Amino acid sequence: xxxxxxxxxxxxxxxxxxxxxxxxxxxxxxxxxxxxxxxxxxxxxxxxxxxxxxxxxxxxxxxxxxxxxxxxxxxxxxxxxxxxxxxxxxxxxxxxxxxxxxxxxxxxxxxxxxxxxxxxxxxxxxxxxxxxxxxxxxxxxxxxxxxxxxxxxxxxxxxxxxxxxxxxxxxxxxxxxxxxxxxxxxxxxxxxxxxxxxxxxxxxxxxxxxxxxxxxxxxxxxxxxxxxxxxxxxxxxxxxxxxxxxxxxxxxxxxxxxxxxxxxxxxxxxxxxxxxxxxxxxxxxx
Length: 286
Hints:
It is a single chain. Helix 4 runs antiparallel to helix 5 (about 135-155). This protein is an alpha+beta fold. It contains 8 helices and 8 strands, in the order H-H-H-H-H-E-H-E-E-E-E-E-E-H-H-E. Strands 3-2-7-1-8 form a 5-stranded antiparallel beta sheet.
């Protein structure tokens, strides 16, 4: 009897544990790893040098300073491209020129260089004469008078004569414009022209050309074709300057004008200008 009770008591003692286990939720087994996959995440692989470079360059990130520098570089590159194209056009024009035209261009450049050298030597000679003259005041007055005559010729207030050329432009079509005549004046000045007269109008430093219908106006004075230029200077320099490839003569002939250039040992430029007294400017030596 006691053993049976003990047996029931024993089952009774173990019974609460079994009931507690039944009341607890069942253990959920961990999901099994998929076949062929590791249970642990693989370590991230290091980037190669090329991948790091691409990652650093893309997507691009620009600052304001970088954008300004980029615009400046673009403008500089565009300017260089235009300059190279311009030089290429000039080079192609020279490559297409005839041998005699190239020789003429070289002669003109040599002549301009020689004129500048002669002017330099003349100024040095004047300086030496002033320094070595026993009567420096008299020598200074002589040089001043000579300089005054030279300036009078340049200013158009005195007549001048000397070797040079005449250029006559026939314009029966009325196609010659003021800018073409101005180009001729500038080319003649660059070739060493010292005095110029166009159809009775003296050309000076401030001379301007304007179109006046089918004619041209010089300093407000209307002139008609034919346009006759009387130019004093070295004929061997003046004529080639007008006849260079793409120069004055070729430009006028493209406009169906007829141009005749003649050399002469004596050209008289007698059209005068009135000397203008400045209103405000005074000599700094006074």
